[in-house]
Design goal:
transmembrane helix; membrane; 78% helix; 200 residues; transmembrane
């Protein structure tokens, strides 16, 4: 019980800090005559219930995983401190890995009860402002060891893809024009659609 009181006190202190969100909460508190802590807790309960029973909850969970970290990442880029850059870069590496993994397994996980709620909780765990947070733990225990073990193969695959992209950027216009708009430039009166440097 004391732990709950302590958490409530910390939340109350946080909700009285000077920022635009707390200014909105202050106005809502004045209009509704309901304490801002209770307003936030009520909003959390409604959000959780919606994640359990609502529609579009997978997108909503992903949106939660995107919104605050995107804001914090932009703020981090605007500071001289490199440590916060590293923290949020780690978050985005893990977020991308989770998103790619989910793209292949979503059809299975979708049927798990409370899947969207669990997904949202995982994203919150990944972004929680503690040291180390969830994204750092997932990176250090899963992604980094896998990367170090397969680094040479991954480097070779990235180089091959980069070379292929370079070849396509050099020859892509020729291929594109041959497929989309083949023109017999030798026919009299035919207007050539190719840029002059491609025909050279």
């Amino acid at each position: 019980m004391d732990r709950l009181r302590s958490l409530r006190t910390k939340l109350d202190d946080y909700l009285h800090k000077d920022n635009p969100v707390n200014d909105l909460l202050k106005k809502a508190e004045e209009k509704t005559k309901v304490d801002r802590v209770n307003l936030v807790l009520g909003a959390i309960v409604i959000f959780v219930v919606y994640l359990i029973f609502g529609y579009g909850t997978s997108f909503l969970a992903s949106f939660v995983g995107f919104l605050y970290p995107a804001y914090r990442s932009i703020k981090a880029l605007e500071t001289e401190d490199k440590e916060d850059d590293k923290k949020w870069l780690t978050y985005w590496v893990v977020f991308a890995a989770v998103s790619v993994f989910e793209a292949f397994t979503d059809i299975l996980f979708y049927w798990i009860p409370l899947y969207s709620l669990l997904k949202c909780c995982m994203f919150l765990f990944m972004m929680i402002p503690t040291e180390p947070n969830g994204s750092v733990l997932i990176y250090q225990r899963i992604i980094r060891p896998y990367f170090l073990k397969h680094e040479k193969k991954l480097d070779d695959a990235v180089k091959a893809a980069s070379d292929l992209a370079g070849d396509f950027s050099q020859n892509g216009f020729i291929i594109l024009f041959e497929v989309v708009a083949p023109v017999d430039v030798t026919s009299p009166g035919t207007r050539c659609l190719y840029p002059p440097d491609i025909l050279a």
